[in-house]
TrEMBL record:
Domain MOSC, chain residue ranges per copy: 106-277
PROSITE patterns: MOSC
Cross-referenced InterPro entries: MoCF_Sase_C (IPR005302), MOCOS_middle (IPR005303), Pyrv_Knase-like_insert_dom_sf (IPR011037)
Protein name (database record): MOSC domain-containing protein
Length: 278
């Protein structure tokens, strides 16, 4: 039986995730997922693609007041607590060509990130309206929305697929006479991890039932440079992108995992059964 083994949400775009045993799914994401992000003065998003030390931050949602809590995994900087901004200016931005809008947090919070990243002109914003941004209509239905994720409400990966990818990477690095690279699932930043079934089976799904909920598989997830970083050391190699280019490129994308759009709202739980819907 294919079943859910891990669930996570990522309050701050590009920071580490929060593992949970159950997760409330709203129309636009797992609750609290990617509701915060950093923007530059001109509205461009700030992500770990160009600021990889964001991967060393862990952000959490404080339940009693909704505040964002940010800490460094090694304690290299003092922790930060950011109240949800309930007034103040909105700031417009762009995530992969899509217009986004967030309410700007207190200046002190943005300054904390400027000091940490060694940059100026940064703005921490909160997604106060998760219905503002439509999912790419090429892969969605009218009315599907998303928060500050790269493009879709949820991302699902599978343990058998990771094992297969690791086998491929080992073969490739051995062939090239290079040191082996150990892949961990957190490189891929999934919302849902499942186990059971055949490797890469999820790539053939059109719809899937997970526990009490159903989802549409809207798009294979094309992977980027973020997957080449060890999330603990920030050491970087060519893998897994080099091997994905050789072994699992689909429609010009280097694929690992699938993007899901929920067909309603509900709760996912570790242990939920996963059943593809023909």
């Amino acid at each position: 039986m294919t079943h859910v083994t891990d669930l996570a949400y990522y309050p701050l775009k590009s920071a580490g995730g929060v593992p949970v045993r159950e997760a409330v799914v709203e129309h636009w994401s797992i609750r609290h997922d990617r509701r915060w992000m950093l923007l530059e003065d001109d509205g461009r998003m700030v992500s770990a693609r160009e600021a990889p030390t964001l991967l060393l931050l862990r952000a959490e949602h404080r339940a009693h007041d909704g505040a964002l809590l940010v800490r460094h995994t090694a304690g290299a900087v003092p922790p930060l607590a950011v109240p949800v901004p309930d007034q103040g200016e909105h700031r417009d931005g762009v995530v992969w060509g899509a217009a986004v809008r967030g309410r700007e947090a207190a200046r002190e919070a943005s300054a904390w990130f400027e000091d940490y990243l060694g940059r100026t002109g940064l703005h921490l914003v909160w997604c106060d309206d998760p219905t503002y941004r439509l999912v790419d209509q090429q892969y969605a239905e009218p009315g599907d929305t998303v928060t500050f994720s790269d493009g879709f409400p949820l991302l699902l990966t599978s343990t058998p697929s990771l094992r297969r990818l690791q086998e491929w990477v080992d073969e490739s690095t051995d062939r090239r006479g290079e040191a082996r690279v150990q892949l961990t699932m957190d490189r891929f930043r999934p919302s849902v991890v499942v186990d059971g079934g055949e490797p890469l089976a999820e790539q053939g799904w059109e719809r899937v039932r997970i526990g009490e909920m159903t989802f549409r598989m809207s798009k294979h997830c094309g992977r980027c440079v973020m997957t080449t970083y060890d999330t603990t050391s920030l050491g970087r190699t060519k893998e897994p992108l080099q091997t994905l280019a050789e072994r699992n490129a689909i429609d010009g994308r280097l694929v690992f995992g699938v993007n899901l759009v929920p067909e309603g709202t509900g709760t996912l739980r570790v242990g939920d059964e996963v059943t593809p819907i023909p």
